[in-house]
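The data are passed on as follows:
___
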Amino acid sequence: MKAIILVGGEGLRLRPLTCNLPKPMVPIVNRPFLEHMVEHLKRHHIDEIILAICYLPDRIQSHFGDGSGFGVKLSYAVERTPLGTGGAVKNSERFLNDTFLVFNGDIFSDLNLTDMVTFHRAHKAKVTIALTPVDDPTAYGVVELDSQNRVKGFVEKPSRDKVTSNLINAGIYVIEPELLGQIPSGVHSMLERGLFPDIVKRGIAFYGYQSHAYWLDTGKPSDYFKLHHDLLMGKAFYRFPGKQMADNVWVEESCKIHPSVKLIGPIVIGRGCIIEQQAEISGPTVLGSGCIVGQGSLIDGAVLWQNVKLGKNVTVKNSVIGNDTILKDNAWVTDGSIVSDNVIIGSGNKLEHGIKVWASKTIEDNAISF
């Protein structure tokens, strides 16, 4: 069986983290998001994957190549302009000749794909949609089922008084190839607002597969934080890189950690990091490869990408710091702040309240203080 992963979007909601990276390449615990999706498919013996790409396609293709380094076979369906979920699937038609899966590229889930495909075949479905329950369905597209789990309708972002179900579209589908003929070619179209409502009206066998597996839409910075916290706290399946050096502390090779450093897990420290004396790191925290944490600095609940350099007595709490960024002595970055790549934050600055700093900016010493 083959799978299509829809990863053509620009990741606008994740800006400034996606200024220089396509969203599928944004790191999750020091590996590109898309690697996690490929690994999940491989665990379920799905090793022929089509990547539907548009924004910065070279960054994805140069990393994954033909997929052989990841134990899969990768093909690419490149869009010149964004085609939407339906258009992207149609653009991949030349690769499809049998039942296939489709994944929205924003979704992190450990859903049991093998069981979902078995359900699809047992019901002789033409389409099966994965459904996940949420506490507040008003922000999503709600899917209504009959007593046999057959899809009978969709309600997009219902008001609270019109909520009839808490099951939402989980962005994972099993589709039979004959339905590709019902998607228009070369134009923007959406499965959710085109093909799916149409086949419900026509009475085509369309079923909902309910799952309580871990599921998260990672489109916003707050969700990016949440995913890291959930993985580090064991709420979803994940194998951490490196060796476990202490309780819930994983350290990759070639790191230099001073004996006076205080580590309180869960923490993942990438290869080649240097952590100087009297520094303190509390989880859930991830340090990318090549980071330097200066003397007396504090990191708490943060995600640092590669080659981040912290001076002395720097504080980073509940924030994300992009690649190759420098935080000089006594700088603070806290409270959900997002700092992109190649930024220089001068000494004495305090970045709080979810402030966002775009790529390649320089903030002079003592320029920001709340």
In short: The helical segments are 33-43, 57-64, 84-91, 113-122, 191-201, 221-232. The first strand starts at residue 2 and ends at 7. Residues 98 and 177 are 6 Å apart (CA to CA). The chain has a mean pLDDT of 92.
